[in-house]
Specification:
The complex is a heterodimer of chains A (486) and B (489). Chain A is α/β, with parallel strands linked by helices and 486 residues long. Chain A has a domain of 266 residues: Amidase signature (AS) domain (Amidase signature (AS) enzymes), CATH 3.90.1300. Chain A is 40% helix and 12% strand. In chain A, strands 1-3-2-4-6-5-10-11-9-7-8 form an eleven-stranded mixed beta sheet, sandwiched between helices. In chain A, strand 2, helix 5 and strand 3 form a beta-alpha-beta unit. The radius of gyration of chain A is 21 Å and the shape is globular. The N and C termini of chain A lie close together (11 Å). Chain B folds into three domains: 290 residues, no CATH class; 121 residues, no CATH class; 60 residues, Arc Repressor Mutant, subunit A. Chain B contains 15 helices and 17 strands. The longest helix of chain B is centred in the middle third of the chain and has 20 residues. Chain B is elongated and about 95 Å long. Classes of the chains: A alpha/beta (486), B alpha+beta (489). Chains A and B meet through helix 11 of A and loops of B.
Amino acid sequence: MSDIIQKTAAELSQALAAKTVSAVEVAQAFIARTEAVEDRVKAFNSRDAEWTLAQAKASDERRAAGDAAGPLDGVPVALKDILAVKDQPLTCSSRMLENFVSPYDAHVTELLKAQGAVLWGRLNMDEFAMGSSTENSAFHTSRNPWNTDCVPGGSSGGSAACVAALEAPLSIGSDTGGSIRQPAAFCGVVGLKPTYGLVSRYGLAAFASSLDQIGPFARTVEDAALLLQAIAGHDRRDSTSYKTKLPDYRAALTEKEGPWTIGVPRECFAEGLDPEIKAAVQDAIAFYEKDGHTVQEVSLPMTEYAIPTYYILATAEASSNLARYDGIRYTHRSKNAADAVDLYFKSRAEGFGPEVKRRIILGTYVLSSGYYDAYYLRAQKIRTLIRQEFMQAFESVDTILTPTTPTPSFQVGAKEDPLAMYLNDIYTINVNLAGLPGISVPCGFTSSKLPIGLQLIGKPFAEDELLAVAHRYEQAHGWKDAVAQL
Amino acid sequence: MEFTADIGLEVHVQLKTKSKMFTRAPYHYGAEPNTLTDPVVLALPGVLPVMNKEAVRKTVLLGLLCKCKIAERCKWDRKNYFYPDSPKNYQLSQYDQPICEGGEVEIEMLGASRNVMGEHRMVQLTRIHLEEDVGKLTHFANDSLVDYNRAGAPLCEIVTEPDMHNADEVFAFLTALRNNIVAAGLSDCDMEKGQMRCDANISVRPKGQETLGTKVELKNMNTISGVRNAVAYEIKRQIHAVTSGEAIHQQTRRWDPVSQVTTKMRDKEESHDYRYFPEPDLMPVSIGAQQLKVLAKELPELPFDRQRRFMETLDLPYTLTSVLCPDKELADFFEEALADTGGKVAPKAVANLIANDLLRELSGGEEEGRLPLSACKLAPAHIADLTVLVEDGVITKQIAQTIFTEMYATGKMPSTLVEEKGLQAHSDDGELESIVREVAADPKHEKAISQFKDGNTKAINSLIGPIMKATQGKADPRKIQDMLAKVLG
């Protein structure tokens, strides 16, 4: 195995700066690795090696001229197929957008290009980010590099799998109810969902606008910090984007040492939690105590309502956000329509998969006249209570620790009941409802060699401290050095 | 049986802003189809709206103009419905928290004649909110084409109470509303360009009955007169239906401007469920008291207020003010010209020149419609200069007419024209006396002169024309008369 693909983004950055390796060599190594393992991992929807190599060549030329743009210049980054990249496909893993090519760049794409990152392929996902396994992709199911019979998680399954399979050192995903953290946990990589408003959503095809956030995948916390630094910051094109001075996330990893007070919700060791995950998380708690931090129980009783609340608000927003995919302008258009109204019905019936349809129908229902108050309005109130509950807990603790998922990855096809699938997000979903930052870091393996994820939740816009708390755990454990054997 | 009609209007006004309501794409009338678009207008995957602050500012101004209550805080809502003119298949609008609530618009009813001021009253508004416009569909035999140029343009919706009771009131309301909005520079309100659109809700009830009748919504009226005709027709239709024992159904009807009738478009059995919910991509808007104070200072004097001021302080007759005041540009032009005379000239003389002579030139003899002021070469200073020349006796009124035509055509200042052509009034008495004597000596005036000498003072009027001609119009007719009396006396 090439020694380039084993390197972290931070190490690659250093090697590129020292000119011991060129951006073209780096890109070629990851392209070759992808060619070798992709038929088993299936992380990508599409790849354009020529385009990627051209970017790498441009990076080398910049560096030769002394114009290297920053630490990411020459480092490959792969994007979830839900972020707009000019002149590249943007499918959202849907038949609806199978042939759509974006004429514009997302804010995150612009930032990455400006910092010299070498953009690699388009990563598979559950259709329109709705799902927890990539099984809802209209194209194929991505595989977990640790066990290719198992799912990589979702919706950003391709983003997690490609990093775990060393097909890219870094990738970008999006997280609406756990879609970064859950696949990160399943694939044994680091995944960070930033505070709502830290990363501009401009150019991210919307699932649920008030919950969606873009975030990094990496093999180490340091790499996640590096990528977060590149994509965070205010953007006038996203009115929910927050104006704040960005800390130096990488510097914070060593500058912030605690001691911290770490809260563990009483509710998180409830029924349904896999015993091996429970043990791994308890070991992590013991580590922090031994490391000189205080661990304290907190109570988040509203967690019980997080899943129904989420499935009302997210589907309501989705039913409206996905209305633009109508067969009129740039989407799939049915060839069998009899008239204009039929064109809507048939194009949408043919273009959307079953989970997307299920959520559009649910969202349409909860917004309907006569049901709005009972569902949507009530869910908004519970959302406020969930946020208040977190903010109250943060008065006495710095970080909240939970498992990322109740179970490890499961076999492809094992969960046919959508409700069973929804329960996967039980630890992650309330973090989106509260708009808080959350990170999943590898925290061991089950006896069947499937990765386990530890979730840490931070205060709003305290990603620097959150990353430092995660880094502390990571540095004391060897999980990051484990590589999936493909 | 006598009937009362109740009419409420929903008026849409496109605000005059450089860019669209939620994106920087430009908007203006008359561009090639689908050239004023961007990813946001086309609702491509991933785009987000950004509020146009200028449109909100203009809506607040409109609210202040109409004496509405301005909300301290308002929000945006999504109105969900599928239609090909709406790229997102939802429209950003304001559902339960509009920017402006209540308010009123002063209207003037027709007077007994054109020279008499009609009755004034207030029409009550329900609310004014801001939303985005949709695209424009054109239907053909087998296809429909859509132009998204207009999609996303800022659109104010002004909703009135059912506070009007006949077609003339509706006409007066739309006229007053348009004049106010144009005066404040918020929109050009050209109905034919779709900058102002109006739907009317009409019902009738037996006189004396408290509850309103079943309402019918009228659409497709493209001029203010068209609205008046449609409303008048619909009231008659409904009264006829009720008196012949037919029930009025709640429905939407379309005005056909060619055959001048309304026809049914659709029944409103159940109202559309728009599934409104707060737009998560936009933050709520707060409008501070301090901001309102600043904006209040930007409000123009309303046309009716200005008209009262012209009548009371400038002593202008109603007829002149009713020409000048509805058009802010014209009234401004008048006030500037008046100021330029430095108080030398009576306001009425200045007003007359603008309301009669200037407008006659601008309309070019057409009954309706005229060129805008900006299309002519005259500035207020031209009018001022001309009236001062007459007032100072430098030129006669007759010459003033000639100069007006000349300056309208060339844009030259009146003083310059007088200089160039030597049109100064005849002021040399000696020269005038010799001309008078010369004309009086002409034997063909012998009879008139003898009649004059017999005491018929009017008899010498027949000499004034020839004398005037001999002076090339530069003599004052009164002076000629005095000179004749002196010469013949």
